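Entry for the shared binder. Reason: the reviewer on the internal report wants the predicted structure included alongside the sequence.
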Amino acid sequence: MRPSQWYEAQDMFGDHVTLTQLRPHHAEGVLAASEDDSVFRWMSFDRPETLTEAESLVARYLAVPGVNAWAQMDTKSGDLAGITTYYDINPERRSLLIGVTWLGERFQRTGINTESKLMLLTHAFDTLGAVRVAWEIDERNEQSRAAIERIGATKEGLLRKHKPRKDGSWRNTVLYSVIDDEWPEVRTALRTALDR
């Protein structure tokens, strides 16, 4: 596996969602999916309310070096449902993080998030040969923490005063991971959840 392949946001296709490399033209879809402030409660940025703000948000995702950003496209409607990324990619250590993820409220509880995680983890472990995939989640974000725990990720610890929140307060970050030894069981859990 070439190290450069770790930095290529390859398109992935599922029954509920298609992950396609985020591009500037996705800004209109980002704006349309950004209907609810609660979706952005735990993000480091506010909900875009204008096309200009959506364009700036997409540009922000694309400007960070070494980040693979995907538009999550709802297979049924063809609409953009949200964004997700790989970041802190490290081919030498064969590890990466999944995050800076959001999904518009009307696309939640539709199978998109579950299938997206399945595809991202499958690509990381089975294509790239990762040995570790991790998530950093705000300690107060109980919904995201519960979702990651449901798939079988292991809670590794708490990073105290890890990052400032957009309101200026300091966030404690809960660190979760899945390692290659656990991947077969996690894959089964994700497929079972999708079949429900």
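Summary line for the report: DSSP finds five helices and eight strands in the chain.
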